Amino acid sequence: MSESSHVPKPYAAQAVVLLSGGLDSATLLALAKRQGYGAHCLTFAYGQRHAVEVEAARRVAQAQRAAAHRVIEIDLRAFGGSALTADVAVPKDRSPAEMTGDIPVTYVPARNTIFLAYALGLAEVLGAEAIFIGVNAVDYSGYPDCRPEFVRAFQGVANVATKAAVEGRPTRLVTPLIHLTKAQIIRTGVELGVDYGLTHSCYDPVGELACGRCDSCQIRRQGFAEAGVADPTRYAAGGR
User: Fold this and answer.
1) Which among 40, 112, 130, 167 counts the fewest CB atoms within 10 Å?
2) Hey, what domains does the chain have and what are their CATH numbers?
3) In the β-sheet with 130-132, what is the strand arrangement from edge to edge?
4) What are the tens digits of pLDDT across the range 186-198?
């Protein structure tokens, strides 16, 4: 685990922010800070093929002056079962209908359950009152661990699983992006001064360049177009 800290001032309340390095989580961090939280960011290097997002998370945490940033190494490649953690091709050039059909092969089994378990442990140690997670049920391809019912279920676990909760100090899951479109998320971030040029969303990058063809790249690019905001993403040749 690596950790960095940037503490510009004391905060009355602390929160754990799950920070992937993507567009959504960068907006999430800005929202947590706007609400007055000392934001303790948590990023996972889990064996994902798009590991460049970890460096993007470091850039975002530093630029937004998070209270602290921890990078946790876990190996979800040991299980595989996903195009992001196994030698399975990432789908490319899919139509909107294809992207909103069945749960895609880029779904990582139980990923958000695992991440939230770590976040809940850190929150209890810090005495944090909230965990911010950037799940979204509008633009994503039906991932089961991005849906409101998943959030409600994990909140129930959090309410009974920790000493803090049993003593009357439960940790709240905060999901401010869950019902927003990608364009709405981008407009929110622009208002908050988020630099989206620091972020990375591509599932199958070419070096540090976005492929421009995977589901995540297509959704991101469409979001910028619908928001009327210039897309700062650097795409590989043939990716636009």
Assistant:
1) 167
2) 2-227 (3.40.50.620)
3) 2-5, 68-73, 37-45, 13-18, 130-132, 172-174
4) 999 999 999 999 9
